[in-house]
Amino acid sequence: MKERFQRLFSGFRAGDIFRYLFKSLRIRIFSVIFLTGILSSVIILFATLSNYEERAVSVNTLEARTQMRILANHLIANNYLQDPSSQIISGELDMLSNLYDGRVLIIDDSLNVVRDTYGIAEGKTIISKEVVSCLKKGDAGAIASHDRQNGYIEMTTPIIETTSLEGGDTLRGQNSEKTEQVVRGVMLISISTEPITTTLEILRRKAMIIEIIILAVLFVFALAVADIMSRPFDRITTAIADVKAGYTNDPINENAYIETEHISNAFNQLLLREKALDDSRQAFVANVSHELKTPMTSIKVLADSLTAQPDASVELYMDFMSDITKEIDRENQIINDLLELVRMDKQVSALNISQVDINILTENIMKRLRPLARRSDVELTFESSRQITAEVDEVKMSMVITNLVENAIKYNVEHGWVRVTLDADHQYFTLVVEDSGVGIPEEAREHIYERFYRVDKSRSREIGGTGLGLAITRTAVLMHRGSIDLSGKEGEGTVFTVRIPLIHLTGKEVRT
């Protein structure tokens, strides 16, 4: 553990260490467990001691109340309020005073102190609202209050004499007897709570020792649990660091928690994507090298042939130069497509969104491509269910429509047809390009959007295709937050369906 912390904090400045402690999952887990344990133990300690004190005061009060009522009856029986000379009663009062380490006062109904176990207030008058209330209300006015600050319990109990009255009402021929209770005085007692305080202090000291032990155990426990619970995240961090350093490309398999499983799965998906991108880059570089090299090789061969024939005719020169021009145009087309694809990939060229009439845009493209369709003897038709206006990049949308329609014309059969259909709902407009061409084999459909991929390489080169058209088309569609789908069967034609939102949404708005 010590070595781990030394490794973590080596080279850190004070601010970095503070930031690490504040953001570290291990420290947060430790803090939650440790602080929860401390808070719980403190609450339990406080509640236990408080409950003991309340319980002890309640028991002492109940016991003293019982003793006071017994003594009050003895006082009435022995007529002590009128003749306080009874040694037996005085002894009982002194015993009660010594038992509770307190003071007992006997007060008559004139508020005169008849007996004081301290011997300092006898014959004096006492005026106290507790005593007056007890004289007036009897048991209902008796009080018992705990003065925690001065350390005593003060209680009052009425001294009640019960008398009987004969005569009065007659019930079913028998004489009825009535009783009357008269408050003759008040017994006031002060009970010391020093024994309770002493016991409470002893319990508090022992509880503090237990708290310190619990604190130490809790500290070690919280530290161990925090370390154990954070180990899966450390293993993930180490595995990612190894992948970053290039030591391994193995996927992470950390299933200790659901959270670590989600992180592992997300990283593994990212790793797979990175591998696919890396493979794609390597294949792309190889394809680019090959595609750019082919026209250059052809140009060199043609140029060498002309050089080897100094007496060649003008017609032969013109024929060779025409072929060289075609190869240069092909090279230029490949370079332009590559540049456009790179710009889209890197998001260098942001979408220039504007309100575009999709019907007019499609009609203009169809007019431009009709000569190509006539040369290929392909019937080109356009249908639209409604007038459609959408927020799109006009240049990139023109590229999408042009590439799809041009491919449908080029890869068609003799006397074939191409049908372009537009439709829309309240969210999207749909462009469908359907042809009667040769179709695309099932095994080739997952590759058609790859760069430089050609279903029929010989025919693609013959008609001047670069193998980048569908890759550019798909990228442009995705930049508009749309989708492109392929259907149809080999030998029966191809159907491309493009769906584009009528209202352009940014990435932030889509996530919201």
Structure, described:
- With 512 residues, the chain is an alpha+beta fold.
- Among the domains are: 82-166 and 175-196, PAS domain (Beta-Lactamase), CATH 3.30.450; 287-343, Helix Hairpins (Orthogonal Bundle), CATH 1.10.287; 350-511, 2-Layer Sandwich (Heat Shock Protein 90).
- It contains 13 helices and 14 strands.
- The protein has helices at 2-9, 14-23, 25-77, 87-99, 129-137, 194-245, 258-307, 314-345, 358-375, 394-410, 457-463, 469-479, 507-511, and strands at residues 103-108, 113-116, 144-147, 152-165, 170-171, 174-175, 178-192, 353-357, 379-384, 389-393, 417-424, 428-435, 483-487, 495-501.
- The strands form 4 sheets. The protein has a 5-stranded antiparallel sheet with strand order 2-1-7-4-3, with helices on both faces. Strands 9-11-12-14-13 form a 5-stranded mixed sheet, covered by helices on one side.
- A hairpin with a 7-residue loop joins strand 13 (483-487) and strand 14 (495-501).
- Helix 7 (258-307) packs antiparallel against helix 8 (314-345).
- The protein is rod-shaped, with a radius of gyration of 51 Å.
- The two termini are 44 Å apart.
- 20% of the residues are buried.
